[in-house]
Request: fold
Amino acid sequence: MSKIELRNHPKFYNVFISGPTGKMKLYTKNLDKGNRIYGEKLVSYKGKEYREWDPYRSKLAALLLENPRSDFLSGDLNCLYLGASSGTTVSHISDIAESGVIYSVEFAERSIRQLIQNTTRRKNIIPILDDARYPQNYAKSIFSPIDLIYQDVSQPNQAEIALNNCNFYLKKNGFLVLAIKSQSIDSIQKSEVVYAQEKKVLEKGGYSVLESINIHKYAANHIILIVKRN
Ligand SMILES: C[S@@+](CC[C@H](N)C(=O)[O-])C[C@H]1O[C@@H](n2cnc3c(N)ncnc32)[C@H](O)[C@@H]1O
Reply:
């Protein structure tokens, strides 16, 4: 394993960086030493193991590299993650939120099986096989107030799904980080029009859209909205 010089991210708790601004790489401290989730590079710094966080594989890493103003990560974060897949991004949030819980909802059986295999030694992940369109269905699996809802599902009504989950689970002043893929919503309409429509759904629902960040550099046709519950 290669040794490397790391430093703390200037804003985000438990996120580490290497390299100069503009060529910055992200890392999280590996909670499950010696194990990789998606073939990511493991590096060592001052006797501890870190996992490189690939912005081309994780939209949350892409977002952090675009310097959002809002700070929504913490060591005791309770996160409801919608569209967990096999755990690429979930595992990095698990590294960050050492004393929190990541409730990880995924409706594809194959993906959740991989998620369980990949993250079985991580005690702060609760995999939930369910459909994010029906938030009331997993109420019995969620036993703490939710600070952050992170959503990355390829569905035609992404903002509506997010809104329903926020109304159900997100605590006051909590954050929603919503990845929106315009192509999943409408492949004919211009992306900008689709994004504006989705934003409107959230604002009409009483939420404040604080930031809208383009991550096209890392994920085609995607933006991320950072939203707050008032
Ligand atoms: C783009 S992938 C997510 C990648 C993941 N967020 C990551 O960064 O590691 C989208 C995932 O959302 C899941 N998904 C789509 N619609 C869903 C729904 N209604 N409920 C739960 N999961 C859903 C898909 O099965 C897929 O695994």
